[in-house]
Prior knowledge:
The protein has 465 residues and is of the alpha/beta class. The protein folds into 3 domains: 4-183, inorganic pyrophosphatase (n-terminal core) (Alpha-Beta Complex), CATH 3.90.1640; 198-340, no CATH class; 347-463, Diaminopimelate Epimerase, Chain A, domain 1. Helices cover 45% and strands 15% of the residues. A 6-stranded mixed beta sheet has the order 10-11-12-13-15-14. Strands 2-1-3-4-5 form a 5-stranded parallel beta sheet, with helices on both faces. α12 packs antiparallel against α13 (307-315) and α17 packs antiparallel against α18. It is globular and about 65 Å long. The protein starts with a helix and ends with a helix.
Amino acid sequence: MGEIKKLKERNKLIAEEILKRDDFVIVNHHDADGLCAGAIIAKALEREGKKFKNITAKQLYSETIREIQSAGENYIFVDFGSGQLNLLEEFLKENFFVIDHHQAVKSDYEFHSNPFLFGFDGGYEVSGAGMTYLVAGELNEKNKELSALAVVGAVGDMQDYKGRLEGLNRKILEDAEETGLIKKENDLRLYGKISRPLTQFIAFSTNPVFPGLVADSHASSQFITEMGIELKQGNAWRTYSDLSPEEKKTFTSGLIMHLIKNNYSEFRAKNIIGETYTLLKEDLKSPLRDAKEFATLLNSSGRHGMPEVGLKVCMGDRQEYYNNAMELLLEHRRQLREGIEWVHENGLEEEKGFYFFDSGEKIKEEIVGIIAGMLYGSPLVQQNKPILAFAKQKDGFVKVSSRATDDLVRKGLNLGEILREACAELGADAEGGGHKIAAGCRINKWQQKEFKEKLNKKIAETIKL
Length: 465
Ligand SMILES: [Mn+2]
């Protein structure tokens, strides 16, 4: 159990210091959690009448820090920065704050809030948006109205993978319920309940992937029809939300049975049912009404180079930017579909310590990690090793993304640490880190072989392969 009092003290210290200063550059990560975090602190600064602007970055590489170091007076890094504290101090002295939940490097820097410092697990107990929300709470009580965004951030980072939000996330969820922003329910926890036709709903489910049905519309529609469920109503494709309560039951138990038949443990199979979070103030038909879909929409804008669109939606826009975000969402889904199809066609290699594919330029570096995560459950891989993917970055570096399972983490696997260590050993401009279950880094082209050797060794050692 974490030390909530000490965490609160730290957040208070940061909040008080923020109130003393002005002219802020908010630097946020480009995924759903990062965008929510960026919007939460922006809203909070706006309330205090502070001057601010947002900058979104994919990763906090050393040149990213160099590029932004004259953008303003004070910096607030949200959803990253804990792994780069030493670099940040070097460039920005004391003119920055870090509010993050990724694993941190050793440092005594004062204006740094991170759950791991206080005995909380940033992997599932609180997200970057959640940490930022807690700091915002110390700035002003009224910031309770930002709690829904903190829930969206947590869900976007898949912190509900055990079936529901836990730890500090639970407290934040309670705030969101108390303020009437969110209602929690037990329901099917797959993406696209409102927005995806049933066939796509199954074929392109990412968490979990349905073996034998993944990326296969034909097999998926057959699977649904065999359960006695109509795919269409008149001319319109039906979605999960269009089904009758009876049909929903049939559909859900059909999916669970399918997973069990395909060697999923009963626990994991039943895990597709769990808590869902409905944003009560959003339109009934809007994807923003479901926390998971809201997060996917944000991911699509951030990962496709238009983070300002997602930020504006978080800040409240439901017109121009919202429409824009809907288009990006379609594009994001198309790319995920094509990416997963590409891997199915080209296959993976199995190495001692991991499964591996190199998509070169075929899959965008921004989504290659999501694709890697989608592969668990597909017949291409087993659950016994992490998945590693390479993609070509525009700047010539090789982007490395890695994903593991909850079981592997329980066995002691820590991808964030392994990647950071491997990069440190490779030296010059190989950089990275992240979570135990998901991490990323970049390496130089000529380092690929050496990097893979290092990882094979490190992973095999920790999980005894
Ligand atoms: Mn995060």
